[in-house]
Amino acid sequence: MCFSSFRRSCKSKDHVANIIYIDQPVGTGFSYANTSESYISSDTISATQTYEFLRKWFVDHPKYLNNPLYICGVSYIGMVVPIIVQEIYNGNEAGNEPQMNIKGYMLGNPLTDKNRDVNSRIKYAHRVALLSDNLYKSTKANCNGKYIDVDPNNGLCSSNMQLVNECLEKINLPQILEPLCSTLNVNSNLLRWDRSSVEENSIDLLWPLHQVPGSWCRGFNYVYATKWANERDVQKALNVREGIKPEWIQCNTSIEYAFGLSATVAYTFNVPSVVDYHRNLTHKNCRALIFSGDLDMRVPHLSTEKWIESLNLDLESDWEPWFVDGQIAGYTMSYSRNDYTLTYATAKGAGHTVPEYKPRESLAMIDRWFSFYPL
After folding, report:
1. Could you give all domains of the chain from N- to C-terminal order, each with its CATH number?
2. Which stretches are transmembrane (predicted)?
3. Is residue 283 flagged as an active site residue?
4. List 43, 196, 296, 362, catalytic entry
5. In this structure, what DSSP letter does residue 180 have?
6. Taking 80 as the threshold, does the pLDDT of residue 48 lie above it?
7. Among the options 5, 41, 46, 75, which is catalytic?
8. What is the DSSP track for 226-261?
9. Which contacts of 269-273 are long-range, i.e. CB under 8 A and separated by 24 or more positions?
10. Inter-residue contact 55 to 84 (CB < 8 Å)
11. What is the pLDDT of residues 164-203, one digit of tens each?
């Protein structure tokens, strides 16, 4: 998760915004706690702790208080960022010090409603020709449009979902056109198309970097990130306290969200939907940028567009292309309500974490948005 703030007056390609990155909740990245109890967290606890962190940070760095503040994140943090933003607005209105110059938030492929986002994968799979018309229509009818926690007594739905699973079990959810890592053991149990990111992208990090086997897979890139983050010189440059954690790992499975679970060893996923938080923010003087990679099936753009539509905002501009270097970078719509504005954009050809797949287009998008320009 990043906290984007302090926009600079100079507009070079390297200076769109200053960013604070935070490893949150505790246990992610280089973050740690001194007691085992402190590792216990949840969606709401995480949001509250982040709000308190920001208050303390601004107390220590008051020269930045007048600069515009945006709260940003991608993927699961979509369940937490709207809560943080609402806490900031509520704190300002209650007179909490320091007063933060909150201007809005930005989310990429955000998990927003845990049931609907996963449920929309079937519709998305049909839209991109991974499911036939007949199979989609039959599954939709027999399952009544509900594909999670299927009633085992509903034989027709279960039969359809078995076929759906066979069609989707080897599709890479974060980017449907890219391969799964060849070392993965794909579990063909019913509904395992909602498996977690670790199962989809993990590889054996003990391989020497020059001996990564088989065809290229995006997960191989993370071998280099892991090696880099565990270099002693790197950790020293980042002011990581020596000896606090045994190693940096890409994903801490004790707090990782696996669809269908209500809690892990240390983390409780206690907020099922944050659509109401988004709706509450439409009554604030607030800007929002929501963007989706259109090849992401983990959080399909279809479900994101659906909850945005449910906010019942005024449509300012309908579906239209946006461009980078004369090429279509994606499509965008904009909405408003009084002092609230929301810009929605797709990134053509991008997967679950848009800047990873389309860095140049992502930079253009956020630079224009920060500058109050149309995409």
Report:
1. 2-113+271-370 (3.40.50.1820), 115-201 (no CATH), 209-248 (no CATH)
2. none
3. no
4. 296
5. P
6. yes
7. 75
8. HHHHT-HHHHHHTTPPTTSSS---S--TTT---TT-
9. 269/42, 269/43, 269/79, 269/114, 270/42, 270/43, 270/44, 271/43, 271/44, 271/79, 271/83, 272/113, 272/114, 272/115, 273/112, 273/113, 273/114, 273/115, 273/116
10. no
11. 999 999 999 999 999 887 543 333 333 443 444 434 444 4
Please say if 4 is a catalytic residue.
no
Active site residue 5: no
Token pair, residue 196, equals 């977690």
Question: Binning pLDDT at 50, 70 and 90, where does residue 260 land?
Answer: low
d(CA 45, CA 257): 16
Cross-strand partners of 340: 286, 337
Per-residue 3-state assignment (H helix, E strand, C coil) for 252-301: CCCCCCCCCCCECCCEECCCCECHHHHHHHCCCCEEEEEEEECCCCCCCH
**107: Cβ–Cβ under 8 A, 6 or more apart, which residues?**
72, 73, 74, 77, 78, 81, 288, 289, 290, 291
Q: Using CA atoms, how far apart are residues 66 and 6, in angstroms rounded to an integer?
A: 8
Half-sphere exposure of 305 (CA within 13 A, CB side): 16
